[in-house]
Design goal:
9 helices; 3 strands; 10% strand
Length: 199
Amino acid sequence: MAVYAVFEPPLKEEAAGVAETMERALRFKFVRDGFSWTAFLFGPVWMLFHRLWLAFVCYLALVFAITLAAFSFGLAEAAVTIASLLIALLLGFEAATLRRRKLLRGRWRDLGVVVEKNREAAERRFFDRWIMTAPAAPVVLSSIAQQPVHAPSEPLQAATPAPEPAPPAAAAEAAPSARVLYNPDSYVIGMFPPKGDKP
């Protein structure tokens, strides 16, 4: 069984409100704890591959110091070989530590460890538990934001509200030419007295 430390990438400032949850999940780092044969056999290449620039500079400085000491003090070739072997062993044992420290300096978040027989099983076990607690809102908002926006074929027009019915008095004033019906009980237009009155 192997122990894997899980690291989550940092959130970008412009995407801090709506995180691309599933895309970020693909960038999770699983760092296996223990001795690294790749770092032991191919130390400089391994450090460059993982972008361990500080460790690479320290490695070159240490190798240069050992070489300079060998020429200055006349050290035997076997001593130089043993010193190089010790450096390779140290790099193999501390490979996981170097990677973890680099991720933490880059503001990656340590989510804990997973114990499984291989990396594939560790990823499956971790994401089965992580998906249950991951926020779903950013994923929904992200999928909505990624949908294409189609421009309408015709320009939209603002809906005109229906006019309210005018009151009777206003309607009468608005239509002066409307026909006035004759009312026999009303006053007669002209110089005649009202109906029923005697002179």
